[in-house]
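Run log, item B.
One chain of 135 residues. Sequence copied directly from the ordering sheet:
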Amino acid sequence: LDTVSNGIEDGVTKENLKQFEINAGKNWHKFYMRNGDKFFKDRHYLTKVFPFLQESLDSGDPVAIIEIGCGVANAVIPLLELFPNCSATAVDFAPSAISIVKRHNLHDTKRFSAHVCDITVPDSITWKGHDFATM
């Protein structure tokens, strides 16, 4: 582990690290332009890993979820498919990812919306009104 750790520290300069951070949105945009929705798998396991989420969704009461750094919304789409009482907001700073999400048949502005958003920018999103958040 020390060798791997030292290799990372030795191989990435502070300038490279700064450039990766500055260009993160641009790089993720390129990633989704290249891979579409074929890279990451849907997260069908969330209700098993988080039983309190399952309990909330099973209650039948409205449940609002925000997926931060959603990519192509692999966390909320399976929940929306199974639970009609679930609504979701998906945000990512890659326009290509949000474009893919908006083409999904579940996307509509009443139950499921997606937005390009950089959450590191103050006041870029409204946090109120969500019961759960995923990252």
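Observations after the first pass:
- The beta strands are 63-68, 86-92, 112-116, 132-134.
- The chain has a mean pLDDT of 85.
Flagged for discussion on Thursday.
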